[in-house]
Design brief:
Oligomer: single chain
Radius of gyration: 20 Å
Number of strands: 2
Length: 282
């Protein structure tokens, strides 16, 4: 009689074509559409937050809709360039040094969230200084909407059958085409739920329920710590990148964890700093 593990080992991966549609010779991939959807929905939500003066210090929004429209280009460049460079330096540097053209092959590994965060942070600082916008307030408005991109990005990872999880016998396990004939955690969906839906709702509660935007930097801290905790948790179910494996001779520590641990402290510091600054202005 077959065991539960035997049955799970033959569960098929959902037959979803990574190419959403084609226009002549041009193939439009779900991964690209995910980036577009995340940026556009985040932009629309950011405009709504920026337009609500009651949410901001002194009941005056620090950024206009026109400025947000201009910033979307800066944000997109920061995400794409930072995300790709981050993946190269954190996960794939030896291979790129051997074959430099690999740096342009985004299908080989793709993007790094931590790199994208760094790239976007640089873009925000430059844009804020150029347009005389309080940098912490710009950080906050972007932090509040990032979960849209995280959600769609992880769904695209699932459709592409990449970044799958560790071996398991849970009832919802999936056999990924590139993951061998074994049932695995659909860790991409775990991340979509935690980093996308849950974090978006938590941040919205702070923005609208607790008026946390009145303490510039607090929402940024919540996002940074919240993402780091979610990522570290999911890393226990996610298969580490093949070229790195587990770190320091362990069977649990991954590069994703190492990059996320400092983010918890950084997020806590940002929240404490925001509260301290708000108290001084009372």
């Amino acid at each position: 009689m077959p065991t539960a593990a035997d049955l799970l080992a033959i569960m098929p991966f959902p037959d979803i074509d990574p190419i959403a549609f084609s226009i002549g010779p041009l193939a439009i991939h779900w991964y690209g559409l995910a980036y577009v959807a995340g940026i556009l929905l985040g932009w629309a939500y950011a405009r709504r937050i920026a337009a609500n003066d009651s949410l901001w210090p002194g009941k005056v929004s620090p950024i206009s809709k026109t400025q947000l429209d201009d910033f979307i280009v800066w944000a997109a460049l920061g995400v794409v360039l930072g995300g790709r460079l981050g993946y190269i330096f954190f996960y794939d540097l030896p291979a790129v040094l051997r074959t430099p053209v690999r740096a342009l092959e985004i299908w080989n590994g793709g993007m790094s969230f931590h790199g994208g965060l760094t790239g976007t942070t640089i873009a925000m600082i430059l844009f804020a200084r150029r347009n005389a916008i309080p940098v912490w307030s710009l950080f906050d408005i972007v932090a509040a909407v990032v979960p849209f991109g995280l959600f769609f990005g992880r769904i695209a990872n699932f459709i592409n059958g990449e970044l799958w999880g560790r071996l398991t016998d849970v009832p919802w396990a999936v056999v990924f085409p590139t993951g061998g004939p074994f049932a695995r955690h659909p860790s991409q969906l775990y991340e979509a739920g935690l980093e996308g839906i849950v974090l978006l709702l938590v941040l919205a509660a702070f923005v609208y329920g607790m008026r946390a935007l009145k303490s510039p930097g607090f929402i940024t801290g919540v996002f940074v710590s919240g993402y780091a905790l979610s990522r570290i948790f999911v890393e226990f179910f996610r298969e580490p990148d093949a070229q790195l494996g587990y770190l320091v001779g362990t069977n649990w520590l991954t590069m994703g964890m190492v990059l996320s641990f400092p983010m918890i402290l950084l997020g806590l510091w940002a929240m404490l700093r925001a509260r301290r600054q708000a108290a001084l202005q009372l």
